[in-house]
Each structure stands twice: as C-alpha cells, then as structure tokens.
Design brief:
With 231 residues, this protein is an alpha+beta fold. It has eight helices and seven strands, in the order αβββββαβαααβααα. Strand 1 and strand 2 form a beta hairpin. The longest helix is centred in the middle third of the chain and has 29 residues. The radius of gyration is 30 Å and the shape is rod-shaped. The N and C termini lie far apart (123 Å).
C-alpha cells in the first residue's frame, strides 16, 4: 500500500511538472499576446491570450520552443505630409508668392492588429518581435498618411473650392483602400488635425499661360523701378 501511494505521489508530481512546463497561459500578461514558435512545428496558428487556457507540448522538449510576446494596444501616431505641386516653387517665384502652391496635412492616426493578424505577419516574415510590430504599424501609418494626402490633393484639384475638413473618415479610408497595402491592420482613429491646400486656381492659370507670357511677367517683376534708381 505504501509503495502504491508513493507511486501515485511520484506520478502526481511528474504530471504536475509536465503540466507546468507546457502551460503557456500564465506567461502572457494583460494587454499582450503570445505566439509559440518551435523547431518541431514552426509558428503555432493559435495565439496565446491572457485569461484563456493554453497548453503546448512543444515546451516539454528542451530548447525546442519559445514564446514571442506582443503588445496589442493601439499604436498612436501623428504624421505630417508636406510638399509643393510640380514646378510650384518656380511658379511662385515668378509671381512673388512664396508658398502659394505648397501643401501640408497633419493626421492623427491610431492602428492596431488582431492576435490572429500577428500570427499571419510572423508567417509572412514581416515581423519577428514586438519592436518589429510597432515599426510595422508606424510604417503603415506613414503610408496611410501619404495616400490620404494624395487623395485630398486629387479632390482639391478637381474642385478648387474643396476643403479637406469636409471629408469624413470613412470616405478617406474607402477612397485610399488602405486594406490593399495592409490587409492586417485595423484603423481605430484617423482624423485631419490641420491642413493647407495649394492655390489650384492660380496654378492652373499659370499652367495655361504661354511661355512668352511667363517670360514677360518674370521680366516685369524683376525689372528695377526707375524711380528707385534715381533716388
């Protein structure tokens, strides 16, 4: 009887040790997820989430498996896109109107990904750790801002009276189709903080001018004032 109880006790301890080493849930903190990566099975399809039971036999083999942890809080970013229309600086110099054809947009952006999307990004070799995920989302925010700026400029070019603030979040996201470049991300916040549009009316007017008209206007602007010379 004593031998039997001893065997049961040893078996219970052995089972507890096996359970402990394979139990991955307790290693994941709140607001984070874990991805099991092992030599035997590669990247596990199911992410480990805090509060959800998870056990992986891969950890029973020494040095076989690791648990990659990722923060799943949204990455908040402020992106500014600025520049000038093609030949805008030259046109502005002719009319002495510096900055007339410049544009600038500042966007508030917040992006996140689902736990399943993190697994997919790892399988696609787009990320390997938490810092890569943050960099990936920052890059996505930059691309989103650039696409949004191009979308707004196109709208303004077609309608000189257009105002960027009149656009709704859903309209911009639908127009730029960000999901084509980043199908894994979720845009939780996207807003225009401030904007400056170029003067498309004047820009088109100058574009339609003949080369000799531009030269004459430039010479007239740069010709010294005779009254000033006499003084």
């Amino acid at each position: 009887m004593k031998k039997f109880l001893a065997c049961v006790f040893i078996l219970a301890i052995f089972s507890g040790v096996i359970f402990y080493f394979g139990w991955t849930q307790f290693r994941v903190k709140p607001d984070t997820i874990g991805i099991v990566v092992s030599k035997t099975n590669g990247i596990d399809d199911k992410p480990v989430q805090n509060g959800e039971f998870a056990w992986h036999w891969q950890f029973l083999l020494p040095t076989n498996a690791t648990l990659k942890t990722f923060h799943i809080k949204p990455v908040e970013s402020v992106k500014t896109i600025s520049g000038a229309l093609p030949s805008g600086e030259a046109y502005a110099a002719i009319y002495g109107a510096e900055g007339l054809f410049n544009y600038s947009f500042t966007f508030d952006i917040s992006l996140t990904v689902s736990p399943e999307a993190v697994v997919e990004l790892m399988k696609l070799n787009k990320i390997t750790d938490d810092s890569d995920l943050t960099a990936y989302l920052e890059g996505a925010a930059g691309t989103l801002a650039q696409h949004a700026a191009n979308f707004i400029l196109t709208k303004a070019q077609d309608n000189p009276d257009f105002r960027a603030e009149s656009l709704r979040r859903e309209e911009i996201l639908r127009g730029i189709q960000i999901y084509k470049d980043f199908p894994e991300i979720d845009v939780s916040v996207f807003s225009i903080q401030n904007s400056k549009l170029p003067d498309y009316k004047m820009y088109k007017k100058i574009q339609n001018m003949q080369p000799d008209e531009l030269s004459a206007h430039d010479m007239q602007r740069t010709q010294p004032d005779p009254l000033q010379e006499e003084i």
